[in-house]
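Anyone up for a design puzzle?
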């Protein structure tokens, strides 16, 4: 059922935020360091682990897959918005370095697609 996907997503999100806050305090920063990324990695790892360890029903597996697939694009969109706002506040160097990183990423697409084949 879809509710299992929501439960797994909630668990990963809470654990990721707790670990991110812990990392922030460990490094003396009053911020969450990588909590969303940790949550994403946990979600990917646990959803694959559940598929291999347990016999899940088809509807349950679809629910977990749905929330796994929808969570990552939302987080990427949220992070990119924060990065753009930070770059605008940071000035020309931040915008220039962000543009160069995007350009290099686009240039690597053909290289990575050849490696896949």
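Challenge accepted. My sequence:
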């Amino acid at each position: 059922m879809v509710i299992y996907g929501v439960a797994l997503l909630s668990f990963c999100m809470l654990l990721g935020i707790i670990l991110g806050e812990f990392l922030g305090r460990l490094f003396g920063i009053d911020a969450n360091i990588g909590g969303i990324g940790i949550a994403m990695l946990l979600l990917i790892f646990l959803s694959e682990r559940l598929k291999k360890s347990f016999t899940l029903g088809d509807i349950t597996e679809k629910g977990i897959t749905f929330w796994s697939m929808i969570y990552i694009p939302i987080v990427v969109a949220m992070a990119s918005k924060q990065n753009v706002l930070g770059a605008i506040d940071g000035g020309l160097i931040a915008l220039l370095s962000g543009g160069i990183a995007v350009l290099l990423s686009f240039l690597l697409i053909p290289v990575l697609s050849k490696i896949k084949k």
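A detail worth pointing out: The mean pLDDT is 78.
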